[in-house]
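Task 17 of the worksheet. Students: predict the tertiary structure of the chain below and write it out as structure tokens. Keep your answer in the requested format; marks are given for formatting as well as content.
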Amino acid sequence: MKRILFFWAVILMFAASASGQQDDFYSWDFGQVKAGRVVKHAFMFKNTTGKDLKIKEVNTSCGCTVPQLKKKDLGANESTPLEVKFKTKGYSGPVAQYIYVNTDSLEEPVVKFTIKADVVK
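Model answer:
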């Protein structure tokens, strides 16, 4: 039983480290932010599918996070800015919010971006 648990722990560590490389590209940490401020960051969303891509919608994990996408139709290897505003009012301490870009791609229908902040008073 211990060997099986160890095996799965090793597999999960490799999966986490592999996804961590991608998360670094798709995440932004604002660091310490004073409560009540609105902070902004622009990600670059790139179509890596090799064919035309349609962005169906962009959702967030909270109404405090507002995304704005410049283009919804991208050709192969084309990019567009994804601007994100995070309203810190009402938050305290470490916060993580998520932005979900829903596409018509069968290989990767949802791309997740993450913003983080340590909200201080």
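Marker's comment: The chain has one domain: 28-120. The chain has one helix and eight strands.
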